[in-house]
Amino acid sequence: MAALFIFDILMALKDIKKRIHQAEVNFSRPIGTTKLIAVSKVQPNDRIETVLDQGHRIFGENRIQEAQSKWPAFKEKYEDIELHIIGPLQSNKTRVAMQLADSIHTLDRPKLAKNVARLAQDLGKCPELFVQVNTGDEPQKSGVLPKETELFVKECLNMDLPVKGLMCIPPLNEEASLHFALLKKISENCGLSQLSMGMSGDFEKAISFGATHIRVGSAIFGERVKSPEQ
Ligand SMILES: *Cc1c(COP(=O)(O)O)cnc(C)c1O
């Protein structure tokens, strides 16, 4: 069994990298610039180590508690790990998230922005930030509304927050392209260059719309055993 999943993951990772390269070529994106974030939420540690042993260093987690239980040990064992927080961030977890993560993709409300700015002073450092945009205007989903994004980004930059780009999770039953195009448009209006968009099922499409960071979980690790929070 063990040998089999190692082989599966190895092949999957190789295949994803090949498809990223091909998409960059097909859509005239700068070659080798798309960041592959391996989303390791709820994956067993041996699977994560398999990916680490392949030399991959960029990972994503969506729950702080889970990230905290796994990544400090991996960071001791492997050099140059880059950890991205891609799930909703509660106020009481913000400090831990900022200590642990290199990047947070889910800056989604003014109160959180103020909290992050205060903690950045306190900690003397701040992860790279993405503003999450609720492109589908879905009531149950976090994120700033499209029409409010430009002002929110301005406010964040005024607080000296290192906002690098925008992030979105398209609605499940809609054509993702519309949302990728919208996010791209908003990012241009904001003067931001990074776009965190695209998952296992649509990362090539996201690259065609200029994704700089894609978040791929199940296509690398296999299906998640527990269902994800979001
Ligand atoms: C789980 C998750 C992903 C990865 O999803 P897959 O379909 O398994 O690739 C990407 N982004 C976010 C925000 C997630 O929570």
Entry keywords:
single chain; 230 residues; eight-stranded parallel sheet; 15% strand; globular; binds pyridoxal-5'-phosphate
The ordered string of helix (H) and strand (E) elements is: HEHEHEHEHEHEHEHEH
Strand content: 15-25%
Tell me which CATH architecture applies here: Alpha-Beta Barrel
Ligands bound, unique: pyridoxal-5'-phosphate
- Ranges with pLDDT <50 over ≥5 residues? none
N- and C-termini, Cα separation? 29 Å
And the CATH topology?
A: TIM Barrel
Give the overall silhouette.
globular
What would you note in describing this structure?
With 230 residues, this protein is an alpha/beta fold. It has a single domain (3-221), classed as TIM Barrel (Alpha-Beta Barrel). The chain is 47% helix and 15% strand. The chain is built from 9 helices and 8 strands. Strands 7-6-5-4-3-2-1-8 form an 8-stranded parallel sheet. Helix 4 packs across helix 5. The longest helix has 25 residues, at 2-26. The protein is globular, with a radius of gyration of 17 Å. The relative contact order is 0.16. The model has no long low-confidence stretch (mean pLDDT 95). Pyridoxal-5'-phosphate binds at residues 39, 41, 62, 86-87, 169, 199-200, 215-219, 228, 230.
Task: Give the helix/strand layout.
Blueprint (H helix, E strand, L loop, with lengths): L1 H25 L8 E5 L5 H9 L4 E4 L2 H14 L4 E4 L8 H7 L2 E5 L2 H14 L4 E5 L13 H13 L4 E5 L8 H15 L3 E3 L6 H6 L4 E4 L1 H4 L9
Parallel strand pairs: 1-2, 1-8, 2-3, 3-4, 4-5, 5-6, 6-7
The chain binds pyridoxal-5'-phosphate.
